[in-house]
Amino acid sequence: MDKISIGSKPLLYPLPAVLVGSNVNGKPNYMTVAWSSIVNMAPPMVSVSIGHSRHTLKGIEENNTFSVNIPSTKQIAETDYCGIVTGAGDDKSALFESFYGKLKTAPMIKDCPMNMECKVNRTIDLGSHVLVIGEIIDILVDLDCTHNGIPDITKIDPMIFSFPQNDYFQVGKHIGKAFAAGKSIKK
Ligand SMILES: Cc1cc2nc3c(=O)[nH]c(=O)nc-3n(C[C@H](O)[C@H](O)[C@H](O)COP(=O)(O)O)c2cc1C
């Protein structure tokens, strides 16, 4: 198969579309983030990469806390809205019912099937974006999105973002078991 070079770009597949929340001047604000990942096992940590101009970053710096909320595909309009409108100009707090957990200052979205409350561990200024690494203090999941006490991806029904096409997708079909499929070629 021939390949073409498309140059140096920030591309990776698949990317989840999540809603990152923080309190800015005491008021919840949420922004859409595609650049997030789990980055440590013990203690559990998640990273979100946030542009310098984002209103949400102000709240993260103010409180040293933030939330990562996983919307379901049903929340496509709200999720996209939080990615095209800034809290610096428009109040996004009334868009969702917010609640607080152990940290008290990391607003979470009740309607999202899964919420993570995080305490900032460190931030790294990478240039255009600040990599915020947070320790996951707690995860809350809607009971009906769990199976045997653990989150079920098919029930959560998260959104996948594709850049640079700028399209949203849904999780596809199950294709095999991890830490097991490779055994077929293991000597
Ligand atoms: C699908 C999608 C993914 C996005 N991912 C990111 C991201 O990873 N990091 C970022 O800084 N901005 C990202 N944005 C842009 C911000 O969400 C957008 O600038 C938003 O208005 C910021 O809100 P705020 O100023 O209220 O914090 C994304 C937007 C969309 C629609």
TrEMBL record:
**The UniProt record lists the keyword Flavoprotein:** yes
InterPro entries the record matches: Flavin_Rdtase-like_dom, Flavoredoxin, Split_barrel_FMN-bd
Q: Which Pfam families match?
A: Flavin_Reduct (PF01613)
SMART domains, per the entry: Flavin_Reduct
Record domain Flavin reductase like: where: 12-148
SUPFAM superfamilies, alphabetically?
FMN-binding split barrel
Gene Ontology MF, one:
FMN binding
> Which terms are listed as keywords in the entry?
Flavoprotein
Cofactors (names): FMN
User: Matching PANTHER family, A to Z?
Assistant: FLAVOREDOXIN, FLAVOREDOXIN-RELATED-RELATED
What family does the database annotate?
Belongs to the flavoredoxin family.
According to UniProt, the name of this protein is NADPH-flavin oxidoreductase
| Naturally occurring in which organism (per UniProt) | Methanooceanicella nereidis
